[in-house]
Amino acid sequence: MRFKVLLIAFTFIVFNSWSQVVINEYTAANYNNYQDNYNEYEDWVEFYNPTTGNIDLNGYFLSDKDNNLTKWQFTGSFIVPANGHAVVFFSGRDELTGEAHTNYKLHQTKGNEWIILTNPNGVTVEDSVWVKRCQANHSRGRDINGSNNWGVFDTPTPNANNVNSFLGYAEKPVFSLAGGVFTGSVNVNINSTSTTNTIYYTDNGEFPTNASNLYTNQLTYNNTTILKARSYSSNPQILPGFIEFHTYFINDNHTLPVISISGSDVDNLLGGNQWIEPFGTFEIFDTNGQLIDKNRGQYNKHGNDSWAYPQRGFDYIVRDQLGYGHEVEGQIFRDKNRDGFQRLIVKAASNDNYPFSYGGSGAHIRDPYCNSLSQVADLRLDERTHEPCILYLNGEYWGVYDYREKVDDIDFTDYYYDQDDGYVDFIKTWGGTWIEYGTDTGWVNIRDFIINNDMSIQANYDHAKKYLNVGSLIDYYLLNVYTVNADWLNWNTAWWRGRDLNGDKKKWRYALWDFDNTFDHGANYTGIPNTDPNADPCDTEGMGNVGGQGHVPILNALFDSEEFTADYINRWADLGNTYFSCDFMISHLDSLINMIEPEMPRQINTWGGTYADWQNNVDDLRNFILDRCTEINAGIVDCYDVTGPFTVTVIIDGIGEVQLSDININELNSGWSGEYFGDINIPIDINSGSFSFWEIISDSTYVYDPYDPSFEINLVSNITIIAYFDANTITYMVDPPGQAIMSENGNIINGFPYDKSYTNNAVINLSALPSVGWQVDYWSSGNHTFTPNPTANNVAITVNSTDTVWLHVEPIIVTATIETAPENSNGDVYIDGNIINNFPHVVSYNYGSTVNISANSTPYWEFDYWTSNNFVPNGTNSTDYSFNITDHDTIVAHFNELVYHDIELNCTPVDAGILSIDGNVPPYLPETYSFLENTIAAISAMPKNGYRFVEWTSNNLEIQPNAQQDGAFIIISESDILTAHFEEIFDVFVPNSFTPNNGDYDNNVFQVSVFTENEYLFNIKIFNRWGQFIYESNDALNAWDGTNAKTGAQVPDGIYTYVLNVVIPSSNKNYETKGSITIVR
User: Fold this and answer.
1) Do strands 55-56 and 1054-1064 pair parallel, antiparallel, or not at all (unpaired)?
2) How crowded is the C-beta side of 410, counted as CA atoms within 13 Å?
3) How far apart are CA 71 and CA 68, in angstroms?
4) Cα separation of 72 and 20, whole Å?
5) What is the pLDDT of residues 132-142, one digit of tens each?
6) How does pLDDT run across 460-495, given as a tens digit for each residue?
7) What span, in angstroms and rounded, lies between the C-alpha atoms of 11 and 9?
8) What is the pTM of this model?
9) How far apart are CA 586 and CA 202, in angstroms?
10) 626: how many CB neighbours lie within 10 A of its CB?
């Protein structure tokens, strides 16, 4: 008979063999604890080799993603020494010499990253661990080298033995009320999920410690408050937990997004202590008071002159190492799809601050106005996207600010242009010039080439265009000159390029910086000749090499190229006719002022000044813009060898599109009119449509080919250009009706049939927008071809005739594929209540259906957790889970194999005692039991009558505390035979002398003592020295009193011999001996 003992044990990680290298310790929280060979604080993993021989990881892989096991490879020798450690840094440097550095970084707060060591075959995982959060400069690791038990180290031990671990962190407190906007007062309860935790809190922005307020009862607040709490456990093996925090805006309502910052020294930083970089919390709320995101990071000074003002700017950096987040998550800018930001700039209008800048002359808008104007005009520049906001510091209102996207940041270049770390050259001038990233070699080369070569030679100009984005240079000059910037070239100038051939923006281009000293406001740090509205647009061209980096000399050299000069002048006209026109610039200014105007009264009440004074400052800015836009064309004529300006009107007859310089005109804006300069070639092209011919109406004579779709015109007078087109009608339909709509070139069509006319060769971009639960089947038409193919969601057609376009949709069928890991695991998995017998198992569902999955442990396999591609959060350890499926998904049930070992229990002699193991008493011996590996099993041996316990013996396992204890225990690490040894109780004691009849009544007789629980046969014979028989007895209870058995007389003193024989019949044991007895009287 066999007995099975089931023990359920949960472990954080399962690793395959003690003979292999294991992940021993790691951190993704290395803020300033352990430096690599570059003196940087990169995250790291430590490997441990528990064997007696060195192990080389050459060819092995490391990854942070379970769907990409071969992300980084040890391409050379990397030794983990015998019984030793080795460290790899997650720096992204991709190096193996000196110290090992992966080609990726680690993030502890993303919640989807692993550390996975994979065999050189690229498939077999040798060891893995799911990255969990730590507090700053802490690590996670096995409590001792190679152990199965994991803990937290507040003093990490890279390349050293793991010691002094903690079980983990106290649970984060739970607030009864989330932060937000409230009226009246708020009541907040703070709870803990553990009864052993004590909660401490602060409501002044400070980081809570066990010296802070002890939480005992509900808290009530009547004013805006930032509340923070932290749990401390009574268990010394549990570290203080992460903080929870919420800001409650009480009777404070705003029309702008709100940022709440707090920290023990954040107020000191904003108070003017520029040398500190404190940690603190960050919360951002939308205009409805709904929390967008919150985290904890680091603050530092931002700004220079403006730091003389009480209302100061700062940079905020989310620090993943603190364990609260890796970026500000959410689409926090109205006009950007980007939804993750590690770094943000938060400014209070800098040198345009009201009321502090330049005697109260600030409008609180100049810098965001110029940056956003560049964005809406789609200038070939990189701008600091801005969003106006309200700032609270430690729960106190701090005024009208705006937060900015940081351009001089690899996250920026990577997100927008796929130019990642190591592939960017970024140069900045602010008083001096420095290299932010990469090198300046490429810049120096193209700068010197342009300055030292004749740009009137087309080949030279073409070479310049190969490395310099001349359009970016043009736009950079036009924006700065138009706004009369007095703080650029030698200050606030940045330019960069990407070097990743697979990325975008590989030519040198310009990025915007501060624009607060514009429109005749602030100090003239650049020394431009004129800061008035009538400043010549060519003023800076005669100033020499301002800033020392060649920007002005480059511009002047490029003017030798007719192509560049035409592009430069035409760009002035393009922008003057559109985004730099009086109407647009004033409209754009008003739109930004309208955003902050409702908030300015409280800004003024807090920091000083008057509302009327601020409005006057805004009017001054508005008037400057109006004067500038009316003066600029005259300035261009004065500066450059051009005439005019002349009015150009473009009329579209039919359906088509014309491009005049950079202006697109079609049937929707036919009759467009603008001003351009003469003595410059202006390009005009057909973009789309079935073009027929041109007609030019003017008082002057123009020579042109009316049938040429592209030509250039040099203006000598006002002119009207008519473009004639033919048209085709496309009818749009959906099948079946009501199950989809579509967009046509970005315009939503939701009523069918829908007719629209197009020119020949017009490209129509169509996007299918099926109803929920439906998908594209195919597109069809009578005469047109769909690209990339007729089954794509987004297709394009080139119009060649009148036609009907059909969008056919069908119901979405999605599949759930169920797998197990490892593949040979034998746990029970159910889907929708049905057990799965074969894997992988695929079930089809209608879009949005509910899927119910469950997993049960079996005797040899223990359920651990779920992973999936979409719907089940990785690491979910609930055995039952339900979700609505809206896409194909593969769900994996992960099991841990339960390893058992057989223990045979035996006894010798047979039936000499009663044995037990782990509470089990076998009815028969030998008996075998199965135990889960590492079970601590108690053993006991109780002798039966006539026996006594001697010891335990085993083949392999250690009997603890020793084998001679009848009650002991074993730690079961392998199969074994365990034997309890007994011996029969059988002892005989024979005295060697006695003193009969000497009068002391002591030791008067000779008696043999027999010790046994069994029946026995006894015989003793006594002889004198001559061998004569003296005495015999068959009963051990009969004592000899020293008389002769034959005569009855006392024998004389002396030495007598005896022969003794004791036999136990039941066991055939025999005790036979001879000896002597001395009689003394």
Assistant:
1) unpaired
2) 11
3) 6
4) 19
5) 999 999 999 99
6) 999 999 999 999 999 999 999 999 999 999 999 999
7) 7
8) 0.69
9) 47
10) 14
